[in-house]
Design a protein that fits this description.
3-stranded antiparallel beta sheet, single chain, 8 helices, 241 residues, binds 2-phosphoglycolic acid, Rossmann fold, 7-stranded parallel beta sheet, 10 strands
């Protein structure tokens, strides 16, 4: 696993954006797996700037986001639909029909999960998957547990994640208790993975990942099973491990 240590969060964001742009240059119709959270915000901002400068073209790309709260309406400003619109989709030339997120308002969740996996498969799988990491080591909403799911599924957020995500809501009670997330097997079948790790509070899961040992108690450690993962980290996360 390659580890790129950037001096700052800004450098991390620019480095990640350049990799996404390079992927699209090499394969314009790439299938991108996208993540939400505060870590990739800088990368999306840089991609929007690159698009304005004519340095990246999303016109043939397809995207699949990792997860979405459940239940939540797509126009709720705490939904990941809303986040992605604001940070990327309305700022670049992705075709609306090529954008996919799990539907947090689906009446039949099981059917929605199966449909989401099918769409990823029909698109030929993920070429480049962007990931963040929770400070509890989660990937998407694949939370620490005795067993992990392979496919897209409905899951309960851990208390730790609810507390961590409360910063985006008026209060902790408003954080949805469940989410739809792509499973670990789908993530691991991505051809290339870029994991973004920023900030001191990510040092511990980063350390656990880099021991090379695999444990479902730290879902990110499963990335050790993947053959082409690049970790982009900043000094704050890297020096603390
Ligand atoms: P963060 O979340 O980027 O907001 O820290 C990452 C994650 O929980 O996967």
């Amino acid at each position: 696993m390659r580890v790129i240590v950037c001096e700052t969060y800004e450098e991390l964001s620019v480095t990640a954006a350049k990799m996404v742009a390079s992927q699209l240059l090499l394969k314009p119709d790439s299938v991108l797996g996208l993540a939400t959270g505060s870590t990739p915000e800088g990368m999306y901002a840089e991609l929007a700037r690159m698009y304005e400068r004519g340095e990246v073209d999303f016109s043939e790309a397809t995207t699949f986001n990792l997860d979405e709260y459940y239940p939540i309406s797509p126009d709720n400003d705490q939904s990941y639909h809303y986040f992605m619109q604001k940070h990327l989709f309305e700022r670049v030339n992705l075709r609306p029909g090529h954008i996919h997120l799990p539907n947090g308002a689906a009446a039949d969740v099981k059917a929605e999960c199966a449909h989401y996996d099918q769409m990823i498969e029909d698109a030929g799988g993920i070429d480049l998957q962007i990931l963040g990491i929770g400070h509890n080591g989660h990937i998407g909403f694949n939370e620490p547990a005795g067993e992990l799911n392979d496919c897209t599924h409905l899951t309960s957020l851990t208390e730790d994640t609810i507390q961590s995500n409360a910063r985006f809501f008026a209060n902790e009670e408003e954080v949805p208790r469940q989410a739809i997330t792509v499973g670990m097997a789908t993530i691991l079948t991505a051809r290339k993975i870029i994991l973004l790790v920023s900030g001191r509070n990510k040092s511990e899961p980063l350390r656990r990942l880099l021991t090379g040992k695999i444990s479902t108690a730290v879902p990110a450690t499963m990335l050790n099973l993947h053959r082409d993962t690049v970790i982009i980290t900043d000094r704050a996360a890297n020096d603390g491990r």
